[in-house]
Amino acid sequence: MKVLGIETSCDESSVALADADGVHANLVSSQIQLHDKFGGVVPELASRAHVRNLLPVIEAALEQSGTRLDEVDAVAATAGPGLIGAVLTGLTCAKALAWSLQCPFVGVHHIEAHILANSIDVPMQFPALALVVSGGHTELVLVRGPGDYQRLGVTRDDAVGETFDKTAKLMGLPYPGGPVIEGLARDGREGEVRLPRSLTTPGNLEFSFSGLKTAVRRHLESLGPAPTARQQADLARGLLDAVLDVLLMKTERALDQQPQVRGIYLAGGVAANGPLRERFAGLARERGLDFRPPRLAWCTDNAAMVAWTGRLQLLAGRVDGLNLPAFARGGIRSWAVDGSAAG
Ligand code: KG4
Ligand code: ZN
To answer: Which of 79, 114, 165, 293 is the most buried (most CB within 10 A)?
Structure first.
């Protein structure tokens, strides 16, 4: 079954094709330059850019994968969560395509797609623990199998990627902040700037990052109007270490509470972070768990994960009606409690 997947939940217009052999094309038209001068994504601009980009990206993805439109067996698109206008553009386009091709359509949960991207190249080991870290989400999810999820802990306020983006803006750095902070932190000295670790009480699996933003602002004020490159690097290092310490601490705690887990996985844009991937690899070695750093192209928003997840849903017999609504918010939901969608 050949599935065409569409992702437009934020600022990437992406189209991919997936079949039994994996993913064949994953085209991403990024809007980073469009939003850069605003220091974050402007929802209305994102929607308009998706409308302009989608058809050319679909055509390019079909061409790159050597697929004719009439060879597409089903269409999948992100139904949420995300910027509602942006989600609507891709979802509506997917429905129209499915209607015109008279083929099945399925809506995909963006967070589920980020998690299941880990199973595109090689099977995931279930039950699994997934740490979802993106611009809009930070959560620990117990994955019993495709479609069977339990949220163990979420952020009370900012997401990790959002924290990097907002602190980067405070530091006068470009958007998106995550990769820039990672680069700067390489030259920073460990322990020079110590920032708070929040919600550290034993057993707690929630996250909170808004205090970090305030701590960064205060530290910047103490440095005066023109911090040196060294001071910026030390601050970036202090920020990255504070974030990673909390992410690792909570992951370890979740593993202590869920000893049946066989694999740990990273999902979302922040999963591209080198030090995070290294620390996860170390934790997996220490505990004898499966872990593979996800391909970089499948960490940040992409349609490969949407086509792939949509295909798993369709194989499990799930089809959505063309009246499926888009949604802006909402945690990951289970749809196959017996895990029968694997394969
Ligand atoms: O998953 P994603 O592409 O979009 C959302 O669904 O939110 O994640 C984007 C986020 C941004 O906040 C960006 O700063 C962060 O991922 N990010 C990183 C890295 N690459 C992207 N954060 C830390 N280190 C990176 N290398
Ligand atoms: Zn995402």
So the answer is: 114
- Whether 188 lines ligand 1, by a CB cut-off of 6 Å, is no
Ligand 2 centre to CA of 299 (Å) is 8
> pTM of the entire structure?
0.93
Q: Which whole number is the average pLDDT over 144-157?
A: 96
- 146 & 269 share domain: yes
Mean pLDDT of the chain: 94
- 183 and 109 in one domain? no
Ligand lying closest to the C-alpha of residue 239: 1
* Percentage of residues of the chain with pLDDT beyond 70: 98
Mean pLDDT within 198-219: 94
Domain that holds residue 228: 125-293
Q: Are residues 129 and 97 in the same domain?
A: no
Q: Pocket of ligand 1, candidates 13, 133, 270, 277: which has the most ligand atoms within 8 Å of its Cβ, to mutate?
A: 270
CB atoms within 10 A of CB 228: 9
Are residues 258 and 233 part of one domain?
yes
Q: What is the 103 CA–ligand 1 centroid distance (Å)?
A: 33
Contacts of 93 (CB under 8 A, 6+ apart): 6, 8, 54, 55, 58, 77
C-alpha 181 – ligand 1 centre gap (Å): 11
Q: Is 136 in the pocket of ligand 1 (CB under 6 A)?
A: yes
Which residue, 293, 311, 326, sits at the end of a domain?
A: 293
Minimum-distance ligand 1 atom for the alpha carbon of 160? 12
- The verdict on the CB of residue 134 being under 6 Å from ligand 1 is yes
**Pair (145, 95) in one structural domain:** no
Residue 87 near residue 9 (C-beta atoms within 8 A)? yes
The answer, yes or no, to whether any atom of ligand 1 lies below 6 A from the CB of 301, is: yes
- 178 near 40, Cβ under 8 Å? no
Judgement on whether residues 283 and 301 belong to the same structural domain of the protein = no
Question: Does the pLDDT value for residue 224 go beyond 70?
Answer: yes
Query: What does the alpha-carbon distance between residue 263 and residue 124 come to, in Å, rounded to a whole number?
Result: 7
Domain count, the chain: 2
What percent of the chain shows pLDDT beyond 90? Answer: 87
Residue with CA nearest ligand 1 atom 22 = 178
Indicate if 289 and 305 belong to the same structural domain. no
pLDDT of residue 324: 97
Q: Which of 75, 109, 19, 177 is nearest to 331 (CA)?
A: 109
Q: What is the CATH number of the domain that holds 182?
A: 3.30.420.40
What is the pLDDT averaged over residues 261-286? Answer: 98
Per-residue pLDDT at 210 exceeds 80: yes
